[in-house]
Amino acid sequence: MSQLGDLYKQVVLEHNRHPRHYGAPAHYTHKAEGLNAICGDQVLVFLNVVDDTIASIHFDGESCAISTASASLMCEFLTGKSVSEAHRHFQQFCRLMDKNTPVEHVPELGQVNAIAGVRKFPTRIKSATLCWHAMNAALDGKEFATTEK
Length: 149
Fold this sequence. Notes:
The chain is of the alpha+beta class.
């Protein structure tokens, strides 16, 4: 396996076994549910936005290892970012995960790039992007998100 493949496997396993920011917080300002009806992944994303900054972000729900790892990475990465940065990073992440684009790495996404290995498994891309869709929906004032077009 390549070094990038090894990194992908290690990151997914670590964040699935020990997810960061897991569990519903006592206080939040934004919340959305994400559902991937095809595989059954369900994720709730909770954000506490203060002065246009994501002060905290958590997730909860029932999902596969890839979805859990992606949500854990996303929460770590977006904490402290502005709402506009979060929207921009959502677009970057979606482009990174699009199997039809040549983008294989987005420097601005840092360690989140490790999840891009899922592109080798196209049926799992929606699992990796579900939490990002829920986060984006929550920031847009929507209560529900899906990975379906």
